[in-house]
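Take the subject:
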Amino acid sequence: MPAKQTAVYRPMDEDLFWELIAAFNWKRTGDDEAVMRPVEKRLAAMPVEDIFAFEEILAEKLYQLDGEKYAAACYHGETRNISGDLFLYDRCGVVVNGRELYEQVVQHPELWPVGGEFESLLFLPQQAYKRKTRGGEYPYVTKVSYETCSNAAAWPNG
């Protein structure tokens, strides 16, 4: 009988972050919770520190896209009267589209995929933590804020 393979622990890093994002179940489009469930389960099976690291990487990615040039691309030149919440959800949409698109948009904002908001991504780390701790209160706060206009240097006319 062949030996049972044991999963090798991989600490959360950018490569694993993008691997998890790629594991979303897009066959369940329309039900964000179902789309994210495979990743939520994987995160919940990891050490708590990795859930926090996942959120930290997510916050950094969203912070990177928080800027006037990205808002202009997303909203066809409009940057003054945009909804901060909707712009945040649109930035989540860029992230859930995967590493390749994310990196392309960072370099070329005009490639922004319009209308792809995915607010539920913001709650994935908390959901994984609650699954892991059976309802525990989420204690982590990221080093950078992903709220719109937090990246002040990227909003020169803000």
